[in-house]
Design a protein that fits this description.
α4 links the parallel β6 and β7. This protein is 31% helix and 26% strand. It is of the alpha/beta class. A 9-stranded mixed β-sheet has the order 1-2-3-5-4-6-7-8-9, with helices on both faces. Strands 11-10-12 form a 3-stranded antiparallel β-sheet, with helices on one face. It has a single domain, classed as Alpha/Beta hydrolase fold, catalytic domain (Rossmann fold). The longest helix has 21 residues. α6 packs antiparallel against α7.
């Protein structure tokens, strides 16, 4: 596979009522004019610093659906002062940020920052299907820039590394999405063998779709870590060791219990899921319904 030498030039930004697009030129053959969509939160105020959710959709998406705010994302972003930035990258192994797309994203973020008060150094990532490959690979490429990441229905992950110990991740997958389910469970298992917690959720009887309950869990997870980040100060990165887990879930049954409950001891180790707060625990439980 040839490595791509990339030169980026921001071409234009088109503003709409709540959304806009950035176009940049690259030397990647199918991305000579790569477009990224973004959504501006309602009641945007220049004196408030906003975080950015990088939202990767399915393979070769144009990013418009992801930046639209549909399926509850717009409301969540408005409530939490978050921009959506949705890449419309095409082919050229765009899910591998070290090749060209990582720098493209950073370039787009810097352009966004010229016009809006956004934090470009502490990002949230969400992705489903092919986008889930990008969401975890981009997080692992520059973990210093990532607050938290979510991958749903993923078939390709980064190699577990100590560098990600301080970067919280959530992995969800339907158990009827057989190949991706096996890959996802193996990835979570490998990280746990290193003593690194990845929040995991099986979605019973789901194939390769995105259930609304999985989105609700994703937003609860991202919100929890975003609020922790803001409370601790933007210059301070939370470590895995500082996260407490007052609840433990049983992935086999979908139930959860206080960590001190005797019922926790009856849960098989591979089915135990540590849950950092009740809101996440409830969303995690509902995702099994």
């Amino acid at each position: 596979m040839n490595r791509l030498c990339v030169c980026f030039t921001v071409c234009f930004s088109i503003l709409t009522s709540l959304g806009a697009e950035l176009s940049i030129t690259t030397s990647a053959s199918n991305n000579q004019l790569a477009v990224l969509q973004y959504r501006i939160p309602k009641n945007y105020a220049q004196d408030i610093q906003y975080n950015v959710l990088v939202f990767f959709g399915g393979r070769n998406t144009n990013g418009k659906a992801e930046a639209s705010g549909d399926n509850g994302w717009g409301k969540w972003c408005d409530e939490n002062n978050v921009f959506i930035l949705a890449p419309g990258f095409k082919d050229n192994d765009y899910w591998e940020p070290g090749k060209w797309s990582g720098q493209a994203l950073l370039d787009a973020l810097l352009e966004l920052k010229k016009n809006y008060n956004v934090d470009t150094e502490h990002l949230l990532y969400y992705g489903y299907s092919a986008g889930s490959q990008a969401s975890n690979l981009f997080a692992a490429w520059r973990p210093d820039l990532c607050i938290a990441w979510v991958s749903h229905a993923c078939g390709y992950f980064h190699k577990p590394t100590e560098a990600m110990r301080s970067t919280p991740g959530l992995v969800t997958c339907g158990d009827a999405d057989a190949a991706r389910y096996v890959i996802s469970r193996r990835f979570v298992r490998d990280y746990r063998s290193m003593g690194v917690e990845i929040l995991w959720k099986t979605l019973p009887n789901h194939r390769h779709e995105v259930p609304m309950t999985s989105l609700e869990l994703a937003r609860a997870f991202l919100e929890y870590h975003l609020k922790r980040h803001r409370q601790r100060g933007r210059a301070v990165k939370a470590t895995e060791e500082t996260v407490s887990y007052p609840f433990v879930g049983n992935d086999l049954t979908g139930d959860y219990y206080p960590a001190s409950s005797p019922k926790v001891q009856a849960i098989k180790e591979e089915e135990r899921v540590k849950l950092p707060d009740r809101k996440i625990a409830e969303a995690w439980r509902k995702a099994a319904e």
